Amino acid sequence: AAVPPAVAAAAAPPHLLLICFPGQGHVNPMLRLAKRVAAKGLLVTFSSLASVGARLAAAAGVSAGGDGVPVGRGRVRFEFLEDGDPGSHLDDLMRHLETAGPPAFAALLRRQAEEGRPVACVVVNPFMPWASDVAAGEGIPTAVLWVQSCAVFSLYYHHVHGLVEFPPEDDPEARFQLPGLPEMSAADVPSFLLPSNPFKLLADAIITQFRTIERASWVLVNSFAELEPDVVAALPGVTPRPPELIPVGPLIELQQGQEDDEVRGDLIKAADDCVEWLDAQPPRSVVYASVGSVVVLSPGEVAEMAHGLASTGRPFLWVVRPDTQPHLPEGFLDSVSGRGAVVAWSPQERVLAHPSTACFLTHCGWNSTLETVAAGVPVVAFPQWGDQCTDARFLVEELGMGVRLRGARREAVREAVEAAVAGPCAGDMLASARRWSAAARAAVAPGGSSDAHVQAFVDEVARRARG
Ligand code: UDP
């Protein structure tokens, strides 16, 4: 017999909808959170701009359904905003999001209700403050997913509330200190908060989000309780009191094979065959190098990096995005053939988890930072801007997992790689990395601190939806 509609609706799992800022460093943690929440029984929809949907589908090699919806085998549904052309410059994108985003997002939320799956909770990114306003207008509670560290959250919070004055950028000796954090200099502060920041619109969006963050019912953070205990413990003592941070990370793909979904989150098709190349290398021999999805090195820096990596004499796997490949020195690929591999995009977590990988020369984006922590791979930290400087400081000085590279000169690259792989402190760095890896994996394992936080969040969303 047919189930009466009222009964069917009562039995349906509550619907959680995530709306994601269009950047690789946001898509990865949000999609991974989506998968974890879906695995705990909620109906979950991942949404972003239509252009993100098209890229996800193309990179995953799956057919795009209506409106560019990737059709995966996984539990997460995909639906994208009908938002028109976002343009490619960061400022154009921010303006586009602010004008086209709110009406398109409101329409998407209403469509869910009309089609019988009303949204019980929206998860928003910190770079789109308007999304929580739209959700509030529809009477839907929101959770923020903070995709950077708790330390960076504290720096932003203190700055936005006028609770800290950062030292001048031209005074490298001057120090300041926040509760639960070590003494820092201006070089450790996220660059968006410093007077020299050129990305004003992006900084404005994050700052606006911070001013209104109390409106969110939950602030989930991609970190884990054991990684940043002092800052998490200190924040409730700050006045005005910040919202409670709920660490749910590291948001990494859980074990391979457990993945039931071919939509991994890549916006560029990954060179999965580089894993076979890694298989052919000796254990703990390969230098993996990547500056993530946004940082652009100058032609001179690319050339220096190329000579530096080649001069280590070690095998290396280097991510050089297509726009940067023309800056490789002439004949470089032939000269390193067999020992060095260059790919446009790597399956990074698989690379870091591979036994042949010895160290990670990284720009220290927070996802890369957590992924190398989870994999237990020591680093050569090469931060450029944003929160990367804070993360590099954290990886090298607080976690003891590697060395700093300052400037892309070839000798400096070679020396830093040697120090991380074979220098007098390399053994200690590897031991620290392995300890942090064990702690990270324990946090996301069933019953671990982050797993318990995800479960409590899911239970509360369900309770509110039913209550
Ligand atoms: N990534 C990847 N393949 C690459 C380079 C990066 O899969 O060749 C992924 C990486 O695993 C991480 C994300 O892209 O999850 C980059 O995020 P991150 O916060 O490290 O840096 P961003 O790109 O935002 O600067």
UniProtKB/TrEMBL annotation:
<dbReference type="Pfam" id="PF00201">
    <property type="entry name" value="UDPGT"/>
</dbReference>
<keyword id="KW-0808">Transferase</keyword>
<dbReference type="GO" id="GO:0080044">
    <property type="term" value="F:quercetin 7-O-glucosyltransferase activity"/>
</dbReference>
<dbReference type="GO" id="GO:0080043">
    <property type="term" value="F:quercetin 3-O-glucosyltransferase activity"/>
</dbReference>
<dbReference type="InterPro" id="IPR002213">
    <property type="entry name" value="UDP_glucos_trans"/>
</dbReference>
<protein>
    <recommendedName>
        <fullName>Glycosyltransferase</fullName>
        <ecNumber>2.4.1.-</ecNumber>
    </recommendedName>
</protein>
<keyword id="KW-0328">Glycosyltransferase</keyword>
<comment type="similarity">
    <text>Belongs to the UDP-glycosyltransferase family.</text>
</comment>
<dbReference type="InterPro" id="IPR035595">
    <property type="entry name" value="UDP_glycos_trans_CS"/>
</dbReference>
